[in-house]
Specification:
heterodimer; A: mainly alpha; 75% helix; B: alpha+beta; Sulfite Oxidase, Chain A, domain 2; eight-stranded mixed β-sheet; five-stranded mixed β-sheet; 13 helices; 13 strands; 24% helix
Chain lengths: 225, 331
């Protein structure tokens, strides 16, 4: 059964009821507000914590904050990529309404992450930053990922969808795949020795990308019934 | 031509400025509040309150004893006061207890540090196993050293220890002794990092020095910090401290010291020789392949605004050890 077709006469399943609920604009607005706060809090919390207690983030608060923001950007990026597989699997088309907000928050966290690197680590000394960009693959790849996501963020509005046309817009927004891959490689190259966490993200990303393969999509949909 | 000459090191105005060692005010040398906090904590432990309020810290503190030592006024840092003890004992690289900085403070209390013996062997006249208690009776002194991690952060720490030369004198190295290798204890049953499925490094942890580096008066065998015996996460009961080298050279919880004829290979060099060389002298001109070493973050500062100094500011004392050497090649 397709997500947008009218509900069947059979007793509603939980996902069907969710699908129905997400057609009510009022409820969607409330849920969006909740999602907004949930996405914003992990970005605000580390500096707030530090402001309230200078020792709260340990000996290296800058590193703590840079990594927190980087982690959150990556996690939100993966959550953004989860929307489509989840929508197919559960048959809840309304989930799509939350995707743009997730994507934009991923970009916002990324902006903070980049800004903190430029300021805290490189002290806004531009020739050092430029040297870093050229010399260090994990910085280079991270920055390429940032530029890709910048393009996505700039074209995220409804007006831009209309202006670019659906086909071109979709093509541009497929850049989220290379951007996410770059983000994971960036993390992987950054760690000194213990790659457990980057490996975990790599596995999650692999699954999320695999869910988009034409061989996998129908299987995801079938699981629903 | 070498990238470095003795001339550069001695004439650099920044170096000369940094080596003046002005004596800071008493309150700067000893973070009084820190001592008072610690005392209050110990007092609370007596009342059985700390185990409720601060279980981790109280357990760690229970093994730490006050340790008196003469302050050596020659080794005060140029201007920065010592790092808060709470930070210096909670932000540690000690992979035997996990790869995160916070893991050692949590995990290291499982290490038994008494009794403790050090096997001193190799190219020496009198190889022997030395009990820690004997080492504690050597001439101890407190020195405030800069500590610069290869990860571009730094601290200022009041260490208590004795010069390595004193230990060498106990075993009488022969003329064949050209290098010294230090080895960390490896006890899987006490060290959670050694039980990890994917070992992060090749255990036991080792690293070494050239003989003249080891015998340099700045090279310290450390048994305490901040007026107390070493906390486990900082390498109790005995660790190395070579202030002009990156932090990882300072082997922790030492059980073996070998005098060798050939240059040993340290654990980090074995893991990534292009990133961590044998010398690993602090040098702002030679970047780590993945990050710059030009400046450092003096913790807990947010901005990495401090310019790193050649030999971590100890150039006047140690530059002559490397006269004529190309430090870009011998990183």
């Amino acid at each position: 059964m397709d997500a947008v077709s009218p509900p069947s006469k059979a007793p509603f399943s939980l996902t069907q009821r969710l699908d129905e609920a997400l057609k009510q604009p009022k409820l969607v607005r409330v849920l969006k507000l909740m999602l907004f706060v949930a996405c914003l809090w992990p970005m605000v919390e580390p500096p707030l914590h530090l402001y309230l207690d200078p020792l709260a983030l340990g000996a290296n608060p800058a590193e703590h904050i840079i990594r927190d923001w980087g982690d959150w950007a990556l996690q939100l990026l993966l959550l953004t990529l989860l929307v489509t597989p989840l929508r197919l699997w559960l048959g809840v088309g309304g989930l799509l309404r939350f995707r743009r907000m997730l994507g934009l928050f991923a970009f916002a966290a990324l902006c903070l992450h980049v800004l903190a690197y430029l300021g805290f680590d490189r002290f806004f000394i531009w020739d050092e930053i430029w040297a870093d960009l050229l010399k260090r693959p994990f910085i280079t790849l991270g920055m390429i990922g940032f530029v890709l996501l910048l393009a996505l963020a700039l074209t995220s509005s409804r007006a831009m969808v209309l202006r670019l046309g659906g086909a071109l817009w979709t093509r541009i927004h497929k850049l989220i795949y290379p951007a996410a891959i770059l983000a994971v490689i960036h993390y992987w190259l950054m760690v000194k020795r213990d790659v457990t966490e980057p490996l975990l993200y790599a596995c999650l990303l692999f699954m999320l990308l695999a869910a988009r393969l034409p061989q996998v999509r129908p299987w995801l949909k079938k699981r629903r019934s | 031509m070498s990238d470095f000459s003795k001339h550069d090191a001695i004439q650099s105005p920044r170096l000369i400025k940094s080596l003046r060692y002005p004596v800071p005010a008493g309150s700067e040398i000893t973070p009084e509040a820190v001592y008072l906090n610690r005392r209050a904590l110990l007092g609370m432990m007596g009342a059985g309150l700390a185990s409720v309020a601060l279980p981790e810290e109280s357990k760690a503190a229970s093994k730490i004893e006050p340790l008196a030592a003469q302050k050596n006024a020659k080794f005060l840092p140029p201007s920065d006061p010592p790092t808060d003890i709470k930070l210096a004992t909670s932000y540690n690289n000690y992979y035997e207890f996990g790869t995160s900085k916070s893991a050692p403070a949590r995990e290291a209390e499982s290490l038994t540090v008494r009794p403790w013996t050090v096997e001193v062997t190799g190219e020496v006249m009198k190889p022997r196993r030395i009990d820690l208690e004997e080492l504690m009776r050597l001439q101890l002194e407190e020195r405030i050293y800069r500590f610069r991690c290869v990860e571009a952060w730094s601290m200022v720490v009041p260490w208590i220890g004795f010069e390595f030369r004193q230990l060498a004198a106990l075993v009488e190295p022969t003329s064949k002794a050209k290098y010294v290798r230090f080895t960390t204890v490896a006890r899987p049953e006490e060290m959670s990092g050694l039980r990890a499925k994917l070992p992060s490094l090749d255990w036991p942890y080792t690293d070494g020095l050239r003989m003249d580096e080891a015998m340099h008066p700045l090279t310290l065998m450390v048994v305490g910090m901040y007026g107390q015996t070493l906390p486990n996460q900082n390498g109790a009961p005995l660790r190395l401290m070579v202030p002009w080298k990156y932090g990882f050279k300072n082997v922790k919880s030492i059980v073996k010291i070998e005098f060798l004829e050939k240059q040993p290979e340290g654990s980090w060099t074995k893991a990534a020789s292009n990133e961590y060389g044998f010398y690993s002298n602090v040098n702002p001109q030679v970047d780590h392949p993945r990050w710059s070493q030009k400046r450092e973050r003096l913790l807990p500062a947010l901005f990495a605004s401090r310019e790193t100094e050649l030999f971590n500011g100890y150039g006047e004392q140690v530059a002559s050890l490397y006269a004529g050497m190309n430090l870009r090649f011998n990183y």
